[in-house]
Amino acid sequence: MASTTDYDAPRSPIAGDDSLEELQARRASTQSATVDIDELDLAENFELPGAEQLDEELTMTVVPMQADEFRCSRCFLVQHRNQRASAESTVCRDCS
Description:
- It contains 2 helices and 2 strands.
- β1 (69-71) and β2 form a beta hairpin.
- Helix content is 19%, strand content 6%.
- It starts with 19 loop residues before the first helix and ends in a 16-residue tail after the last strand.
- Strands 1-2 form a two-stranded antiparallel ribbon.
- The protein is elongated.
- 2% of the residues are buried.
- By secondary structure, the protein is an alpha+beta fold.
- The chain has a domain at 63-96.
- Pfam families: DUF4193.
- This is DUF4193 domain-containing protein.
- Residues 1-32 are annotated as: Disordered.
- It comes from Rhizocola hellebori.
């Protein structure tokens, strides 16, 4: 079982009074020589599967909203009018 700690008790003095120069020298000697690698550099070399197909141009015909359709005011999808939550509503059944 873990022992309890009395946080109000006076603290014991820190063992070993190291000078500022000694602490800085110790800190400098323990630092590793790692180089920070930018995440953007890693992303430039990363290729997605099927990336060779991205050069193809995608074309799609856009059909304007029909008279029997409405745009849901919550999800902004164009739905057929029978998908309305109620007759006077501008919200689809999925969002209500």
